[in-house]
Design the sequence.
């Protein structure tokens, strides 16, 4: 879910609409301000004192034509298959869908636990264990998330982040058909993580696909048309999502 | 006598230290931001206002809190200096229109599910005269971190970047617009922006869906 739904998740950028990057200002230029800022060099884009909190993450894209084709395919998959199914599926009350999401998330604990350990984040690893214990028992098999109300928040960790932690770059951008935005590094990470996914061992291949599809549809049903907003607002949705992906992965890796 | 002198010294020191604090009173960026965010939410939920009236009121609130010229400069980045002043002016004007129309779409699609207390103000940092205000939007189904970067002019803190879930708005625009300028020049970028503005003007509000 965290994987397929990622393009959507990453793009939450516009879903918080009225508080978010939507605004409008006077059409005329405040020339005094502009020139003043130039002289002081404040207008220099490298000069943001908070820049490290949102690094100008760039990602190489040598196979852009393949990626764009893949992006086009995923776009059609979203609009013609996943979204319509998710829309019908919304008859299930939100609380129920939230529980489904919790369940899959709880199931993926080994991935977060192992990758926390690999990055020597022992507190995080411990918290994941605590969450698993609490949510599986008190939380009725992972359907609820009582650990969160005790301040034990989930922290996304995966092998792509682990590799990044040890200095490995993204390589290049890669849009995987069906699965969505990724990179050489994160793509390798997904394969590694799949060995830590309990579903790999419990379910046969077709069942696993079914489970993943269910997880994805459930995720989309909870999302508030984020992807639609990006398609509508961005000059080039492909570039927008590519950059948002790079920024978000960079931030997650540094956390 | 000694006590009076001590008191004088004390008052002098107090005055000395209080000057810098007066200029950058802790909490000021958050206070100013919060006032406008609260007002926007209040206006959005105000059923007594006519649609036009409501939209205009919100646009005005946003106009006063966002530093548009600075934002435009940051978005063009190195291209800002390469651009002629005509191009700079045109960019600011187009970017304004594009976001204004995007924003109108958002308002139209608003379903009225937020309240002031959905926004939690986590912390405030200062660096080199700029401020960073970290907030968290809390809803039943998600918690979304939204950080605002502000700069100050004449006592007014205005937003020049919004970072949502670690994704900086200015960064994203800079990257995508920069790539378009590299490939298609300023004219290419302006044509695309004009086309997008038309699209946004003519498109109906996105359909409202329950979640």
Sequence:
């Amino acid at each position: 879910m965290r994987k397929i739904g990622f393009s959507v998740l990453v793009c939450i950028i516009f879903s918080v609409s009225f508080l978010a990057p939507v605004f409008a200002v006077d059409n005329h230029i405040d020339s005094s301000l502009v020139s003043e800022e130039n002289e002081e060099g404040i207008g220099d884009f490298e000069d943001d004192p908070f820049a490290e909190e949102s690094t100008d993450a760039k990602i190489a894209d040598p196979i852009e034509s393949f990626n764009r084709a893949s992006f086009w395919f995923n776009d059609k998959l979203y609009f013609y298959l996943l979204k319509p199914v998710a829309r019908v599926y919304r008859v299930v009350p939100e609380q129920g869908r939230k529980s489904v999401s919790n369940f899959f998330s709880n199931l993926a604990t080994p991935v977060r636990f192992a990758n926390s350990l690999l990055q020597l984040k022992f507190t995080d690893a411990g918290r994941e264990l605590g969450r698993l214990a609490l949510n599986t028992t008190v939380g009725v098999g992972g359907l609820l998330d009582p650990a969160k109300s005790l301040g034990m928040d989930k922290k996304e960790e995966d092998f792509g982040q682990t590799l990044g932690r040890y200095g490995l770059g993204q390589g290049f951008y890669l849009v995987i058909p069906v699965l969505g935005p990724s990179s050489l590094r994160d793509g390798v990470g997904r394969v590694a993580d799949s060995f830590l996914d309990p579903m790999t061992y419990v379910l046969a291949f077709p069942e696993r696909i079914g489970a993943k599809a269910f997880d994805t549809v459930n995720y989309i049903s909870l999302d508030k048309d984020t992807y639609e907003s990006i398609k509508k607002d961005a000059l080039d949705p492909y570039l927008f999502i590519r950059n948002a992906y790079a920024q978000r992965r960079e931030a997650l890796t540094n956390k | 006598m000694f006590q009076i002198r001590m008191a004088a010294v004390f008052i002098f020191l107090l005055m000395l230290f209080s000057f810098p604090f007066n200029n950058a009173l802790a909490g000021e960026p958050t206070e100013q931001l919060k006032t406008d965010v609260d007002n926007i939410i209040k206006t959005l939920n105000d059923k007594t206002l006519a649609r036009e009236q409501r939209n205009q009121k919100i646009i005005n609130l946003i106009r006063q809190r966002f530093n548009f010229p600075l934002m435009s400069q940051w978005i063009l980045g190195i291209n800002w200096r390469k651009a002629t002043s005509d191009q700079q002016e045109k960019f600011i004007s187009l970017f304004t229109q594009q976001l204004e129309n995007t924003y109108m779409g958002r308002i139209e699609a608003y379903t009225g599910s937020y309240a002031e207390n959905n926004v939690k103000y986590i912390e405030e940092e200062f660096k080199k005269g700029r401020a960073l205000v970290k907030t968290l939007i809390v809803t039943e189904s998600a918690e979304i971190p939204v950080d605002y970067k502000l700069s100050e002019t004449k006592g007014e803190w205005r937003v020049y970047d919004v970072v949502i879930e670690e994704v900086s708005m200015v960064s994203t625009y800079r990257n995508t617009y920069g790539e378009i300028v590299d490939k298609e020049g300023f004219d290419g970028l302006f044509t695309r922006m004009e086309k997008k503005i038309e699209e946004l003007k003519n498109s109906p509000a996105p359909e409202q869906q329950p979640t």
